[in-house]
């Protein structure tokens, strides 16, 4: 799928021109300038991946990580976001570029909640940070830069395994739709003052809204299933050693 930089229409991957507005899909947006936009940034990273790599053979680890990246990307895109890049075991996603929605912050938080639920199903543990703010986006590359990106990354690093931390700006935008618990202001690298943060407990269900989780694809082959079983077993052994909650 290729998203038109002019109108946001979704086109087939092989399309050279937008089927809605006829703009060239391989050309930068008109104006040729960087743009400032308010977006919501999400960082998700795995915890214990080094130990997992020691307990799984290379092929099993490759299968598990490939399914992890595919699952996270699918969740992000289902909620209207776009994956900016993969960094090691981390996923950086942005909501509001190239297409903006009024509820981009809530879309990002819903995505974070679904990602948190999906990770144990893959036999993995992770942590997530979400922050809203102004960023600069390029014209030939959509990579976003700005304080919101840095804070989202720091929030992810500060989150306990299995948790989602929201920045204050994101919380203000979604507070009517989520249940959270405030945490002690965080001393984050590069920030002069402690940064307020909130632990996401849940996203409140919307009456009549069908959960996107029901549309997730099942595991499709025996090798993938076997790798995930082994990764879950390895994760359970680590949990047993640390005294954390067992996998269900």
Q: Could you give the topology of this structure?
A:
Elements: E1 2-3, E2 10-11, E3 35-47, H1 49-55, H2 58-78, E4 82-87, E5 90-95, H3 104-121, E6 125-137, E7 144-145, H4 147-158, E8 164-167, H5 168-174, E9 178-186, E10 195-203, H6 222-242
Parallel strand pairs: 6-8
Antiparallel strand pairs: 1-2, 3-5, 3-6, 4-5, 6-7, 8-10, 9-10
Helix pairs in contact: 2-3, 2-6
Structure report:
The chain has 248 residues and is of the alpha+beta class. It has two domains: 1-28; 33-204 and 219-242, Nucleotide cyclase, GGDEF domain (Alpha-Beta Plaits, 2-Layer Sandwich), CATH 3.30.70.1230. It has six helices and ten strands; from the N terminus they run βββααββαββαβαββα. Strands 3, 4, 5, 6, 7, 8, 9 and 10 form an eight-stranded mixed sheet that branches. The protein has a two-stranded antiparallel ribbon with strand order 1-2. A hairpin with an 8-residue loop joins β9 (178-186) and β10 (195-203). The two termini are 36 Å apart. Residues 27-31, 211-220 and 244-248 have low confidence and may be disordered.
According to CATH, the fold-level topology of the largest domain is: Alpha-Beta Plaits
User: In one word, what is the shape?
Assistant: globular
The domain count comes to 2
Contiguous runs where pLDDT drops below 50 for at least 5 residues: 27-31, 211-220, 244-248
């Amino acid at each position: 799928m290729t998203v038109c930089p002019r109108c946001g229409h979704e086109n087939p991957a092989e399309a050279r021109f937008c089927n809605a507005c006829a703009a060239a899909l391989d050309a930068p947006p008109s104006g040729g300038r960087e743009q400032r936009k308010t977006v919501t940034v999400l960082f998700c990273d795995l915890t214990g991946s080094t130990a997992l790599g020691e307990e799984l053979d290379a092929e099993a680890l490759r299968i598990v990580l490939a399914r992890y990246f595919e699952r996270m990307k699918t969740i992000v895109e289902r909620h209207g976001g776009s994956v900016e890049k993969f960094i090691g075991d981390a996923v950086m996603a942005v909501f509001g570029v190239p297409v903006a929605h009024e509820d981009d912050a809530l879309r990002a938080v819903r995505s974070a909640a679904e990602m948190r639920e999906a990770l144990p199903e893959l036999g993995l543990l992770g942590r997530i940070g979400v922050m809203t703010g102004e960023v600069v986006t390029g014209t030939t590359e959509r990579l976003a830069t700005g304080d919101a990106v840095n804070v989202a990354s720091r929030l992810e690093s500060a989150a306990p395994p299995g948790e989602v931390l929201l920045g204050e700006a994101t919380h203000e935008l979604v507070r009517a739709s989520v249940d959270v618990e405030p945490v002690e202001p965080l001393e984050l690298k590069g920030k002069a003052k402690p940064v307020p943060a909130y632990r996401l407990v849940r996203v409140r269900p919307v009456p009549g809204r069908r959960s996107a989780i029901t549309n997730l694809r099942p595991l499709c082959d025996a090798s993938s299933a076997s790798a995930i079983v082994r990764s879950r077993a390895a994760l359970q052994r680590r949990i047993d050693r640390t005294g954390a909650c067992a996998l269900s």
